[in-house]
Prior knowledge:
Elements: E1 9-11, E2 19-20, E3 33-35, E4 42-45, E5 57-59, E6 64-67, E7 81-83, E8 88-89, E9 106-108, E10 115-117, E11 130-132, E12 137-141, E13 154-156, E14 161-164, E15 178-180, E16 185-191, E17 203-205, E18 210-214, H1 216-219, E19 231-233, E20 254-256, E21 263-265, E22 280-282, E23 287-291, E24 303-305, E25 310-313, E26 324-326, E27 331-334, E28 348-350, E29 355-356, E30 376-377, E31 380-381
Parallel strand pairs: 1-3, 2-4, 3-5, 4-6, 5-7, 6-8, 7-9, 9-11, 10-12, 11-13, 12-14, 13-15, 14-16, 15-17, 16-18, 17-19, 19-20, 20-22, 21-23, 22-24, 23-25, 24-26, 25-27, 26-28, 27-29
Antiparallel strand pairs: 30-31
Keywords: Glycoprotein, Leucine-rich repeat, Membrane, Receptor, Repeat, Signal, Transmembrane, Transmembrane helix
Main location: membrane
Protein name: Probable leucine-rich repeat receptor-like protein kinase At1g35710
Amino acid sequence: MTNLSFLTSLALRECDLLGEFPLRIFNLPNLKFLSVKFNQYLTGHFPEFNRSSPLISLRVGFTSFLGTIPSSIQNLNSLQKLDVAQCNFSNSLVPSALGNLRQLTYLDISASSFGGPVPDSLANLTQLTVFRIATSSSTGPIPSWIGNFSKLEYLCFAFNGLNGSIPASFSNLINLQILCLQSNHLTGVVEFQMFQKAQNLYKLELGSNNLEFVIEQFSNVMDVTVQQFTILDLNTCNLKEFPDFQRNQTKLERLEMSGNKIHGEVPNWMWNISKETLIFVDISDNFLLGELPVVIPWVNLLCLKLSNNSFRGLLPILPPSMREYRASNNKFTGEISPLFCNMNSLMYLDLSKNNLSGTLPQCLGNFSEALMLPQYLDSTIQQQKQFDDD
Length: 390
């Protein structure tokens, strides 16, 4: 190998590397930044790290690195960024030695074999701005000490087996921008006011738990500035109405509110929010009723899910950008409008279990071959995840 002793930075991200990563590179005396992220077929393992290593950033996420994360990793005194997401390390628990890397600002150990409770040894990592343990096998409660991470901007514990409530100490995370806790076993009451100090919070994902999202105490406080969200996931949050703070949202891209307990009609103001930015809306599996606008005004919409409600009247006409339209198990009536022909990028259409009549517009036969159209019988139609910084 060519003499690389003066190398300080090596970035080989997304280079389709194959084979085993040379151990010698880890021992280069001046190497501070190493990234081989997103090389799926690159194998390798960590050496025993000595105290002389100057590494500041070590990123091997989304590779096939294996073996274990050695306890000697705590010798990397200067390490600020560690990314080992979606590797094949055999550690069954998060190594407690990571808690000694007190200069860390970025830690991603997602989609790995790590399981069990989030170790208290990580409570020392108070400089973290990014902390991700998603899509793993983490269990137990969310530690309250995370509320001490005052610099945290991105926290993701999604798709685990965490239980208990969201700690009240989360109200201290005033620099938070992204919070992803969806798809766990979390319970308890969550007041929207918990997040009010985090004025830069733009992505909030709490869905697919058993939380009770409470908004009443906020709705009467008119002098509070509400964050502008781009993503709101409030699926199965025991909501009984559309949150009032949504009324002034102008930047929403994705809105998920399925599986709640919302009754009555969709408020008129709902159709005026984020007209230019919304691309995904899911309000299925509620108790909604009434007629919808003849034309949905979200001009760049890609996906709309209305299924399992009691909407009636004519099917709404959607913009040409649509890819997925689900409106099954409602009470829609009338014919399918020829204006459906404008949705020539449609890939999934489900209008089953309604009271529709007439015949299918012939243009549907000209749609993409990828269109999945449930069978049409008895005049009724029956029955497609960010914040990385190298």
